Amino acid sequence: MDKRRKIIIDCDPGHDDAVAIMLAARNPKLELLGITTVRGNQTLEKVTRNALNICQYLNIDVPVCKGLADAIVRPSLPTEERVHGDSGLDGPIFPPLTKELDSRHAVDFIIETVLNSDDNVTLVPTGPLSNIAMAIKREPRILEKIDEIVLMGGSYQHGNVTPAAEFNIMADAEAAYVVFHCGRPVVMMGLDLTRQALCYPEIVERMSHVKTTGGKLFVDLMKFFCMTQKRTFGWEGGPLHDPTTIAYLIDPTCMEVKEMYTEIDISGGCSHGRTNCDVFHLSDKPMNSKVAMKLDVEKFWDIVEDNLKRYDSL
What we know:
alpha/beta, eight-stranded mixed sheet, Inosine-uridine Nucleoside N-ribohydrolase, Chain A
């Protein structure tokens, strides 16, 4: 068997972040080194508690480190209660929390873990990019040991918080600028791709037959998530944005990606936070990203189901 790929998930759980963690933690192709948290879907305190609850519930024994509570330059965006609820992870009922937070700051953890790793590390940000950008700026030596940055964020077409911008990028556009221009390979799972991963009621029904702790947590999460997506956006199935990053790492053939130059708008104008993706290679600027374009939906849900089965039987 090939050596497992070492990853750090930087996230703001979030129902879809939770599923990304679930896919990564038990997959034999991946070695989850730790989870770092950042303000995004909810406040830093709430998303950090959510990450701890997920790990405790599923017996995921990795460090959880709390990161930045605000964007690195501009005021933070409002949190997203409409979709994720007051806790940021409404729906499941978790037992009393006993798993303890790692004392290291997320930025310190990222730097230490990458520098001390025998192998290169892949960073998987599924929230605003504040922690990743700060780690790069504070210790540029990590760059040579970053294999890839596989992120959920952006859109080459339309945004979801403004006509131009997607939430994760808009929430800290300056941080996104640092990441996309850091010189390491960036793979972008934008809304154009993630809106193809729609969790319809029949998917929830399918996963309800996976009689593991992972299957139960998925169903509890998605019943709430799909309800709020329908109430907020009118969609029958909520887009499962963040797990597409892990699906790509497990099996890159589950989606088509295209290499291109991506510029982050940090102008402060009406398109602030937009990922300007040069899909048609109109400029001569060097390509700095692979942008996911088309999802093999059947293969994606097979990946989800396969990994939910890896948890403890009920």
